[in-house]
Amino acid sequence: MSGAVLVAALIALVGTVPLAGSSWALSPLFLVPIAILVWAWRAGTDVYPEELRVRALFGGSRVPFTRITQLAPDERGRVSALLDNGDVIRLTGVTRDNLPRVLEASGHPVVDQ
């Protein structure tokens, strides 16, 4: 994920200290920036020659390249994988700009359509 998300979560955590530290009732406010930090650190897409591993805050999924029929960016530049059964999986952290690097890492050719 973007380093900007990590920095924003750290700033939010530091900003929460005076507010949540003043009362035990407000201490659960710490959970929001901590959850964002963990999500930004954990979420992403790992590329292997035989599969993609898409990680989220909780859980993740493995998708063999044999099940992927197309990798395509949407209008916002986020990349999704279209599977052979019609399902669509958004590839966390993969954008239109780094799609060629993903394909290169997987050992698959880049095909423009």
What does this structure look like?
InterPro entries: CFP-6_PH. Pfam families: bPH_6. This is Low molecular weight protein antigen 6 PH domain-containing protein. Residues 42-105 form the Low molecular weight protein antigen 6 PH domain. With 113 residues, this protein is of the alpha+beta class. The protein folds into 2 domains: 3-41; 43-106. It is 34% helix and 30% strand. It has helices spanning 3-20, 31-42, 99-106, and strands spanning 44-47, 51-55, 60-64, 68-73, 78-83, 88-95. The strands form 2 sheets. Strands 1-2-3 form a 3-stranded antiparallel sheet. A 3-stranded antiparallel sheet has the order 4-5-6, with no helix packed on it. The protein starts with a helix and ends in a 7-residue tail after the last helix. 10% of the residues are buried.
Briefly say what this structure is.
The two termini are 28 Å apart. With 113 residues, this protein is an alpha+beta fold.
Poorly predicted spans: none
Total domains, how many? Answer: 2
- Termini separation comes to 28 Å
The side-by-side strand order for the widest beta sheet comes to 1-2-3
Give the overall silhouette.
elongated
Tally of separate helices:
3
What is the element string, with H for helices and E for strands? HHEEEEEEH
Largest sheet: 3 strands, antiparallel
Give the helix level as a range of percent. Answer: 25-40%
Residue share in β-strands: 25-35%
Protein structure class: alpha+beta
* Extended strand count: 6
The mean pLDDT is 87
SSE layout:
Elements: H1 3-20, H2 31-42, E1 44-47, E2 51-55, E3 60-64, E4 68-73, E5 78-83, E6 88-95, H3 99-106
Antiparallel strand pairs: 1-2, 2-3, 4-5, 5-6
Protein name: Low molecular weight protein antigen 6 PH domain-containing protein
Domain Low molecular weight protein antigen 6 PH: 42-105
Organism: Actinoplanes philippinensis
